[in-house]
Amino acid sequence: MEPILSKEEIADLLAAIRVGAINVDAIDDKGPGQGIQKTALEVDLIGLYSRDETSGEMRIPNLDIILDVFARNFGTSLTNTLQRTFQVEREDIVTNNFQNSLMELNNKGAIGIYSTDPLKYGCLFHFDNLLAFTLLEIMLGSSHANELLALDRNLTPIEINILKTSMTGICTDLGKAFAPVAAIKPQLVKAENNFRLVNIVDAETEVLVATFQIRAGSEQAGKLRMIIPYLTLEPIREKFKEIVSVTHASYTWGTTFAKEALEMPFLLTARSGSLNLSIRDIINLKAGDIIDLGYDPNRPLDILVEDKQKFYAVPGERDGKKAFHVTGSLGNSVGE
């Protein structure tokens, strides 16, 4: 019996067809029973994804949404902690194997190893040399005028220990970002500058690599890379698919503002007339003076919302209290 593809494998195959990685033009057009002999087509799905820059987003749908939220959270945390304006933007999500993803880092910078309980295998965050030394300079009190430099050397154990402050801050931001799909509790397990000592999965295990560009003010401050095994996210893959439907069902900011605006209190004024007086006339007013408003009793009252005229009305009385009856709106004298 021939093996049957799982739902995930079918989804991967369809995604590969959509991006053109599999040629579907060679279709037999000779009709039923007249087909040519066909050979089996071997498809290396992981290889296909590795050749496509958007592969990581296809492997885990809506992962980009979660990572964009993390980028905003982390940028805010850096700004609040270091008293500099930081901007964090996600660049891409690609797939690779674990060994190659580490080799591409050239053993420079610093790596934080994180647990993601209750998810297995955890993840890594890599601070490249520019980012690591930028954060160190700021934390050690550098001037705003200093140029950001990436020194061509490995970080010392003392420098790694100082960077743990920023590395630990990632835990809260990552947990908040993943809240819509899983209640994870990231913890910094270890900070390392020797990448040969970093090992959370087998060398050939597929991982997703997300790259973030970081700016301090108007200057480039380096790159942050998140390396997370596909096996960490695979158990909650279906949860990622549900993000879009949940987002569409919730209120947008525009809807929220419109709803709240309907409950806002406003000052409503019924004005029978108005007049202009000088300061001298006001000072000379005394008890018994009569002020002519120039109001025609046969003309409707002006109804003002705050200081803007919106309606016309007829004065009257209801239940022993003064009231007015709205007869029309501004530009429309016909009563409603």
Describe the structure.
This protein is an alpha+beta fold and 336 residues long. The chain folds into two domains: 53-256, Chemotaxis protein chec; 265-285 and 293-329, Surface presentation of antigens (SPOA) (Roll). 33% of the residues lie in helices and 26% in strands. Strands 1-5-6-3-2-4 form a six-stranded antiparallel beta sheet. A four-stranded antiparallel beta sheet has the order 7-8-9-10, with no helix packed on it. The longest helix has 22 residues, at 157-178. The protein is elongated, with a radius of gyration of 33 Å. The model is unreliable at 26-30, 32-54 and 246-250 (pLDDT under 50).
Summary, kept brief:
The chain is an alpha+beta fold and 336 residues long. It has 12 helices and 10 strands. The chain has a 6-stranded antiparallel sheet.
